[in-house]
Design brief:
Helices cover 14% and strands 34% of the residues. It is an alpha+beta fold. It has a domain at 174-510: YVTN repeat-like/Quinoprotein amine dehydrogenase (Methylamine Dehydrogenase, Chain H, 7 Propeller). Keywords: Repeat, WD repeat. WD repeats lie at residues 233-274, 316-347, 389-408, 452-484.
Length: 512
């Protein structure tokens, strides 16, 4: 019996029918008491006391969802984050209220609104921070200043959007040029080593490349790839000294070692005339409409009017040695000449119908070597570039109007040819000893863009294709190399093609 009495006592102790004295307050009791206390303390004066307990909850878009509250006393069971940090309902309310007109009576009730805000939300609604994701940005408070500086911007700058073009270091095509006359003539002078050479290369506007190989002239059609023998001199000891296409590309002028200038109709492969006026070989040629200018080893420059029988109309005497460089300006106003006497001369165009001798308007003596390389700037007709031989090696840029040297650059190599590339406003130079290469320079800075190497001997001549996208080089290694360095803008190409559709040549109408 005593055993059964002991078990009954144990069961009576474990039963919870009676309240447990000296035990901690239950969680729901603590929650209810703290909620009632905050409601009583948050009432404003003059307001009714029967405020519902749910008024202490944060406004929510989800109806019936109870507020989660962090315990305010130590010893709580876990941390429950407060949803007030997001303040989504407050943000929606302020965005809707932003564009409402301001009422004058609202100022008087601002104190009451602040008290209600503190009691209902636990913070002042006017000081709430809102994450504004779209629409009109919030206005900054009056007198606000931002002292932060922009250190980095992801906006694309003009430099970052510029495309860098690719220039191949290998030629697009290589052609054989057997029996090429590598006629660099070296003469020992008091000033040093001087040189002169021939102009055996030219590219016409009809995309035909003319090459002189010893005493023959060959034509290579760059479009079709066909090769044609245009002419061959009668005597084996004679040779071709210079070539030059007309602007229209249907006639070719040929300077020979027997002191003559021949004019050929390329389409019909017929020689139209042979003009004799020089006393030495004709090493340079240049066209200006119907006037053909020829430079000779005697130092004289002759103007030929190819429309009339008495073709020799003018003589320019300014060089004491062979005229190895001759170029008319794009506008036809000036003729530039370079000689083996290290001079660069600029001559005015002879007046219509005039006959006699002319005087140069400029004569520069800064070069210390023979000047064969001459090039006029297509977009600045008064700018002339010249290059010196082995003893000089300098590229010099001249202003014909003022007579001043704009810039000078030592290339450390003999300069045999120059030309301007209008597609990218660059200058191209061909070199002999000692580099035997081609260099592209940015104009007018004359900073090096790239170098084209591959020839095993000095580069003798440099010409450009009609669309200004490709350059061709002729070297002493008996090869012709084509380099596609300047890609053509399609818009500029169409405009140039429209300008190229002109009427028949003036020479074709009146030559005899």
């Amino acid at each position: 019996m005593a055993q059964f009495g002991f078990e009954n006592d144990i069961h009576s102790i474990l039963k919870l029918d009676m309240p447990i004295t000296n035990a901690p307050m239950a969680r729901w009791q603590r929650k209810a008491s703290s909620s009632n206390l905050s409601t009583l303390n948050g009432l404003s004066p003059g307001k009714s006391a029967n405020v519902s307990q749910s008024s202490s909850k944060t406004p929510s878009k989800t109806p019936g969802k109870a507020k989660k509250q962090t315990p305010s006393k130590m010893g709580g069971d876990r941390f429950i984050p407060v949803r007030n940090s997001k303040q989504m309902d407050v943000a929606s309310f302020l965005l809707a209220k932003e564009n409402e007109p301001v009422d004058a009576n609202t100022t008087a009730a601002s104190g009451n609104q602040k008290a209600w805000s503190m009691s209902l939300n636990g913070y002042n609604i006017e000081d709430a921070k809102i994450l504004h994701l779209g629409g009109k940005p919030l206005n900054a408070p009056e007198g606000y200043q931002n002292n932060l500086k922009v250190l980095y911007s992801q906006g694309a700058t003009p430099a970052s959007t510029t495309k860098t073009r690719y220039i191949s270091s290998t030629p697009e095509r290589i052609l054989d040029a057997p029996e090429l006359r590598n006629d660099f003539l070296y003469i020992i002078l008091d000033l040093g080593l001087s040189s002169a050479d021939l102009n055996l290369f030219d590219w016409g506007s009809r995309n035909i490349l003319a090459v002189a190989l010893h005493n023959s002239v060959y034509l290579w059609d760059a479009t079709q790839g066909d090769i044609t023998l245009l002419m061959k001199m009668e005597r084996e000891e004679d040779y071709i000294c210079s070539l030059s296409w007309t602007k229209e590309g249907n006639y070719l002028a040929i300077g020979t070692s027997d002191c003559k200038v021949q004019l050929w109709d390329v389409e019909n492969q017929k020689r139209l005339r042979s003009m004799a006026s020089h006393t030495a070989r004709v090493g340079s040629l240049s066209w200006n409409d119907y006037v053909l200018s020829s430079g000779s080893r005697s130092g004289h420059i002759h103007h030929h009017d190819v429309r009339v029988a008495d073709h020799h109309i003018f003589t320019l005497s300014g060089h004491s040695q062979e005229v190895c460089g001759l170029k008319w300006s794009p506008d036809g106003r000036y003729l530039a000449s370079g000689g083996n006497d290290n001079l660069v001369c600029v001559w005015p165009r002879a007046p219509e119908g005039s006959v006699g001798n002319g005087q140069s308007i400029r004569c520069w003596t800064e070069h210390q070597g023979a000047v064969k390389a001459l090039a006029w700037c297509p977009w600045q007709p008064n700018i002339l570039a010249s290059g010196g031989g082995t003893s000089d090696r300098h590229i010099r840029i001249w202003n014909v109007n003022s007579g001043s040297c704009i810039s000078s650059l030592d290339t450390q190599s003999q300069i045999s040819s120059l030309l301007f590339a209008p597609n990218y406003k660059e200058l191209v130079s061909a070199h002999g000893y000692a580099h035997n290469n081609v260099v592209i320079w940015k104009y007018p800075a004359l900073s090096r863009v790239t170098e084209l190497a591959g020839h095993e001997d000095r580069v003798l001549s440099l010409v450009m294709s009609p669309d200004c996208s490709t350059i061709a080089t002729l070297a002493g290694d008996e090869t012709i190399r084509l380099w596609k360095c300047f890609e053509v803008d399609p818009v500029k190409k169409k405009a140039k093609e429209r300008l190229g559709k002109s009427t028949s040549s003036v020479i074709h109408q009146s030559i005899r």
